[in-house]
Design goal:
The structure is a homodimer. Chain A is mainly α. Chain A folds into 2 domains: 160 residues; 296 residues. At the A-B interface, α3, α5, α7, α8 and α14 of A face α3, α5, α7, α8 and α14 of B.
Chain lengths: 520, 520
C-alpha cells in the first residue's frame, strides 16, 4: 500500500496486515511520540490523498461498491425480506461482488455475461437432469458425471477461441452455475426449484448493482473513452514538441548512455512517457469502446448507436503518428548525431513545421473535446506549407549534409577516417549482374576507384576476436550529418500521416454528428 | 463459434445455441442431404480442428478443466464423502471453476489470492462478529452493516492502486467471502464453524485444481515465456528481412494507398504482423513472468529463483529494436520514396547489413532456445563491419542522394519544381540572431540568394481555402532521394541497438546459468 503511484512503476507489495501496526500507532496518538513511525505514515497518507484527489471517481466508485454491498446485505439483516427469500439471498451478495465494475458499460457487459451464462447453464442442467432421471437409478450418476466433464472441457476450449476471449467470464459462469445446479439438484432434489430460486437471487443482486452504478454518480465508459482519446492527441503534440526542442538545443554534451536509457526511463522527458502510454493504449481504448457499446445514451452522447468504434479507429491512426514520434525520439537518442551547428542551421524551418503540426493536433483535440466539427483545411495547409519550406530548405542546402566531413567545424571529434587507403576489394562481387548496372551504379564504381575501398578497417575487426567484451558499433562521423536528413524525413512523414488523422477525425465527427462550425 | 482464428480479427459472435441445430444436422447424417448446412459445418469443424492442432495444449487444458470439475463433483455424487462434508462441498466446485487457469503459475497465483483473501476475510469477519455480539442486540445489525460498507469501499479503493492491480482478484475474494461469512453467521449462528467449513471445502477445491494442473500434462508459464521470447527474436529478424527485401524490389508501381493500409492491415507482409505482436507483447510477457515466478523448478528450468524478470528486460530491449523495424516499415510505405534505381545502387550493402543483423538475431534466438551461452562477438563484429561498409558507401556516394534531381533518371515522375523563381522572401526573419550565425548559416543564405525562395508555392496554398476536401501533402521529388538516407540511417540505428540486445541476452544467460559454449 505504501507504493508510489504511476502505472509503469512496480513496487514491492506490503500486505495490509503490515499496515495494521501503523494504523494502531496513529490511533494511539502522536503524543506518544514515535516520530519514526509517524513520518512514513504521514507520507503514505499524503500519497493516498493525492491518489484520491487525482481522480475523484476512484473514491466515488469505492463508496458505491460499499453501498451496493450494504443494500444487498440488508435483505438478510432485516427480518422481513429474509423470511421471504431465505438463505439463497447470499447469491445476491456474490453477484454484486463479482459484477460491480468501474464503468456503467462494463457492469452491463458483465451482467449480461452473468445473466446469459446463468440462464444457459440453468436450462442445460434441467435438461440433463431429466435425461439422467429417465435413464434409471444406476446410470444417473454416470450421466451427470459425464455431462460435468463435457461442460468443463467445452467451455474451457471455447473461451480460448480468439473471438470469444472477451466473454471469458461468461464461460466461467456457465461452468460453475451448471455444476452447482446439477450437483445440488442431485443431492437435494427438485433442481428446477433450486435453479429458479438461485436465478431470483442473482437477479436481485444484479439489479442492485446496476441501479447503484447507474443512479449514483455514474462513471460512463463513453465519457472516459472520449477524454482518453483527447488526452492522447495532446500527449502526442507535447512529445513531438519536446522531442524537437531537445534535438535543436541539445549540443550532445550530456547524452546519457543508451544502455541506461533503453529501459524506457527518460527522467527529463515527461511528455515522452505520455506518448509511450499512447503507444500502449490499444487495449485500453478497445476495452472502453467495448464497454461503451453497452451504455444507453447519456450526458453529451445523446445519439443512439453512438459510433464508439470510430474512436478506436482514430486512436489507431493517432498511434501511427506516435510511431513516427518514437522514431524521432530514437533519432534524438541515437549514437550517430549531426553536429549541433548543422542542426541549428535548419532550426527555423524545423521549429516552424513542428509548431504548426502541434497546433493542428491541439486544434483537433480541442474540437473533439468540445464535440465540434470544424474544417481544419487552412491549418492543414499551413502545416503543409511549412513542411514544404523545410523540404526546400533541405533540398537547397543538401550539400551541407553530405560534404560536412570536409567543411564541418565539428568540435572535439576526430575527422572521418577516409584517408585509409588500401587495395581495391570487391566486396560485392557475388551477385551484381552487369546488365542491371544503372547510371548510379557506374557513377558509384567510378567514385570507388577514386577513393578506393577502405577494407583494412574491416580486417581490424577480425583481429581481436578472442576479446570477451561486447564490441560497440562505431559510427562514421562523415555520415553523421545525414542523421539530420533522417530527422527531417521522419518529421515530414509525421506530417504526411496527419492528413490521415484529420480524415479519421472528420469521419468520427460526421458519424457522431458533432456540431458543425464554419469558422476555423 | 464459426469465427475465423487470428487475434486481430473481430468476428460477430454466434451464440452456442445457434450451433445446436447444426450439430443435430450432422448427427442426423449427411444422407438427409441438406448440403447448404453441411458445407459450412464442415468448414467450421475444420477451423476448430486447425485451432486445436495449432497448439495441442489448448485441448489438454480443456480436458483438464473437465477432469478437475468431475473429480470435485464426485465428492458429492458418491455417498461416502457427501455424508462427511455435506452441502458445503459446493464451494469446492466454485473454487475449481474460478481458480483453474491455463498455466501452473497462474493457477498458483490465483490460488494464493483466493487463499489469502479467504483467510483475511474469515479472520476479520470473526473479529467483527465478536465485536457486534458484545455491543448488544440493538447495535449488532448496525455494526455489521457499517463493517460491510467499509470492507466494500476499502477493498474497491485498494484494487485501483497501481501496484495492487495484479491482486484485483484477491480483493474481490475478500469482499464476497467477508459478506458471505458475516451474513450467514448473523442469520445461522456460529460464524466460526461456518468459516471453518467453508475454508475446508475451498481447500479441497484448491487442492484438486492444483493437483490436476500440475500432475497431468502441466503447462508451465516459464516454458511459455521462454518460447514466446524466442519467437519474438525470430519475428523481428523475419520482418526486418521482409521489409528490406520489399524496399529493394519494390519499384513503386503498386503502392497501396496509405489510408487503406494505415489500419495495420498489410496482407502481403506476414512477418510485419508478427513484428506488431512483438510490439504489443509487453503485457503478455509481464503476465507470464508474473505467473512463472510462482512455479517450482521444472523441466529445463531447474534453478531455484530462476531470473524470469530478465526475460521481460530482454523483451523490452528487443521491443526497442522492433521500433526501428516499424520505422523502416514506415519508410517503405512512406509517400516520399527514393527512386528505384537509387535504391538498387546500394542494394548489396543494405542486403549484406540486413542479412548479418538477421543472422545475429537468429543466432541469439537459437542460443536462447537451446539455453546455451555462446559469445556473439564475431557475429556482432561482422554486423558492424557490414554496417560500416554501408555507411562508407553512402558517404562516398552521397552526391547521388542530393543531386538526384539533376542527374536522376526517375521514370514517369515530374521534375522538381525548383524552376519557380520569385521574389526573395525572408521567412525566418523572426528570431535568428546575427551572433549565432555559423558557417552553415552563411553558406545557406548565400545559396538562397542564388536560387531565390519559391514563396509562390506557399501562396498557392492559401488561395483555395474554401475547398471542402482535405488537402494532401505534396512531396518534393528533389528531397525524395534523401529518403534512402533515412532508410539506411534507421537500419544503422537498428544495428546499434543490437549491441544492447546482445548485452541483455548475455546478462540473461549469465543469471540463468546457461551452458557455456566456447565456439561461436
Amino acid at each position: 500500500m505504501n507504493g508510489k503511484k504511476g502505472s509503469s512503476v512496480r513496487i514491492d507489495i506490503c500486505l495490509p496486515s503490515s499496515a495494521v501496526p501503523r494504523e494502531t500507532a496513529r490511533k494511539s496518538g502522536k503524543g506518544d511520540g514515535d516520530e519514526a513511525i509517524v513520518i512514513p505514515l504521514r507520507k503514505w497518507m499524503m500519497e493516498v490523498w493525492q491518489f484520491a484527489r487525482e481522480d475523484t471517481n476512484r473514491v466515488i466508485f469505492s463508496l458505491k461498491v460499499g453501498l451496493a454491498c450494504l443494500l444487498v446485505s440488508l435483505l438478510i439483516l432485516l427480518r422481513a425480506p429474509y423470511q421471504v427469500f431465505g438463505t439463497n439471498i447470499i447469491w445476491s451478495i456474490l453477484t454484486v461482488a463479482i459484477m460491480f465494475e468501474y464503468t456503467v458499460g462494463a457492469t452491463f457487459n458483465r451482467g449480461f455475461n452473468r445473466a446469459l451464462g446463468s440462464i444457459l447453464a440453468g436450462v442445460f442442467a434441467v435438461v440433463v437432469i431429466q435425461v439422467a432421471v429417465s435413464s434409471g437409478h444406476i446410470a444417473e450418476p454416470y450421466v451427470i458425471g459425464l455431462s460435468i466433464f463435457l461442460v468443463g472441457s467445452i467451455t474451457s476450449f471455447m473461451k480460448l477461441w480468439p473471438s470469444l476471449v472477451p466473454y471469458e467470464y461468461g464461460f466461467r459462469v456457465i461452468l460453475f452455475t451448471y455444476c452447482l445446479i446439477i450437483v445440488s439438484g442431485y443431492r437435494m432434489g427438485n433442481p428446477i426449484r433450486i435453479a429458479m430460486d438461485r436465478l431470483y437471487s442473482i437477479a436481485i443482486g444484479a439489479i442492485v448493482a446496476v441501479l447503484v452504478n447507474v443512479l449514483i454518480f455514474p462513471i460512463w465508459a463513453g465519457e472516459q473513452l472520449h477524454r482518453e482519446l483527447v488526452g492522447h492527441f495532446d500527449s502526442v503534440a507535447d512529445s513531438l514538441e519536446e522531442c524537437v526542442k531537445k534535438y535543436l538545443t541539445d549540443d550532445g554534451s550530456d547524452h546519457p548512455e543508451f544502455s541506461k536509457t533503453v529501459m524506457d526511463d527518460f527522467q527529463d522527458e515527461p511528455a515522452y512517457r505520455k506518448c509511450r502510454s499512447t503507444l500502449n493504449s490499444s487495449a485500453k481504448l478497445d476495452s472502453l469502446a467495448n464497454s461503451a457499446k453497452w451504455e444507453t445514451p447519456h450526458g453529451r452522447f445523446t445519439q443512439m448507436f453512438y459510433p464508439w468504434a470510430e474512436y478506436v479507429k482514430v486512436g489507431a491512426v493517432l498511434r501511427h503518428c506516435a510511431y513516427e514520434v518514437m522514431a524521432l525520439h530514437g533519432c534524438l537518442h541515437s549514437e550517430i548525431q549531426a553536429p549541433y551547428n548543422l542542426r541549428y542551421t535548419f532550426r527555423t524551418e524545423i521549429l516552424d513545421a513542428t509548431n504548426q503540426a502541434a497546433e493542428l493536433l491541439r486544434s483537433l483535440a480541442k474540437d473533439l473535446s468540445n464535440m465540434k466539427h470544424s474544417l481544419h483545411t487552412s491549418l492543414l495547409k499551413r502545416v503543409h506549407a511549412s513542411t514544404e519550406r523545410l523540404q526546400r530548405s533541405i533540398d537547397l542546402h543538401s550539400y551541407l549534409l553530405t560534404l560536412s566531413h570536409d567543411v564541418c567545424d565539428c568540435p572535439a571529434k576526430p575527422p572521418a577516417k577516409l584517408s585509409h587507403v588500401s587495395s581495391f576489394n570487391v566486396t560485392d562481387a557475388d551477385g551484381m549482374k552487369a546488365e542491371a548496372e544503372t547510371y548510379h551504379e557506374t557513377m558509384k564504381k567510378q567514385q570507388r576507384r577514386l577513393h578506393s575501398w577502405p577494407s583494412r578497417e574491416v580486417d581490424d575487426f577480425e583481429e581481436d576476436m578472442s576479446g570477451e567484451s561486447i564490441p560497440r558499433m562505431r559510427a562514421l562521423e562523415s555520415t553523421a550529418a545525414l542523421s539530420l536528413a533522417t530527422f527531417t524525413s521522419l518529421l515530414i512523414e509525421f506530417v504526411a500521416r496527419l492528413d490521415h488523422l484529420v480524415e479519421a477525425a472528420d469521419e468520427l465527427a460526421k458519424l457522431a454528428k458533432f456540431k458543425q462550425e464554419i469558422a476555423c
